[in-house]
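#onboarding

Welcome to the new folks! Below is a worked example of what a typical request in this channel looks like: someone posts a single protein sequence, and someone else replies with the predicted structure as tokens. Don't worry about understanding the tokens yet, we'll cover that in week two.

Example request:
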Amino acid sequence: MWILSKRGNEVYNLDEITNLYIADAGEYRNAAVRASFSHKPKDLTLGEYPSYEMAREAIKLICLLISSRPEVIEMPTDERVEISMRDRDTKARSATGKKTVRRGGS
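Example response:
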């Protein structure tokens, strides 16, 4: 199985990745999803995101995609991550947009 970088210019073998993690991306972006490899001393950046929360959501999306076992996985775009975060937030609300009321009882 393969993973395509967010820029679309590099492809990596998922079988050789030992770890995915979030790191500081530097001057222009706030967070980067990076990968450690079993045979390379240097970690590589798979994608950069505007915030730590977006990078975290990107890793969650990658995990979901890995479980479906496609041949190639693409790093999520900023727009895809924002949609995923928005969908997660709207599921916790009622149709009117208000927070749901949870009533205990027997």
